[in-house]
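Private note to self, pasted from the team thread so I don't lose it. Backbone tokens:
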């Protein structure tokens, strides 16, 4: 897997943790009385957190990357970090331990579907070229 600069990862993680806990409080207030279904509280999804991934059949500069999945102001978000690029996912839908979102790279739209089981992440990404596998693991911060 990919090695990150310790300082960059620590700063990003601290930001995401603060957003997650802040999002938990506001999510509980905002979702009061909302029917369960697409509403996922942070403690209910194994996906929330930071992940490293590898993408099958992707160009070298996009093969390895990192994902941060978090809640902010009651909304689910995905932050994708590539070698020299950072992208916020769009149309994010988090239900249980499965997340769907879209990203655009170099003018090409990709639909991503991921599922977490423990410390493992599996799923697919789809573009005009087809559907390909993604595998990943949770980033452990010590």
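Design output:
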């Amino acid at each position: 897997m990919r090695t990150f600069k310790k300082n960059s990862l620590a700063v990003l993680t601290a930001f995401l943790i603060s957003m997650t806990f802040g999002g938990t409080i506001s999510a509980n207030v905002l979702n009061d009385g909302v029917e369960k279904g697409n509403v996922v509280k942070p403690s209910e999804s194994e996906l929330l957190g930071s992940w490293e991934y590898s993408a099958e059949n992707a160009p070298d500069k996009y093969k390895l990357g990192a994902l941060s999945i978090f809640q902010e102001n009651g909304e689910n978000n995905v932050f994708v970090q590539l070698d020299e690029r950072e992208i916020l996912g769009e149309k994010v839908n988090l239900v249980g331990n499965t997340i769907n979102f879209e990203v655009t790279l170099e003018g090409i739209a990709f639909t991503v579907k991921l599922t977490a089981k423990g410390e493992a992440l599996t799923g697919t990404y789809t573009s005009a070229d087809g559907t390909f596998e993604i595998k990943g693991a949770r980033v452990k911060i010590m």
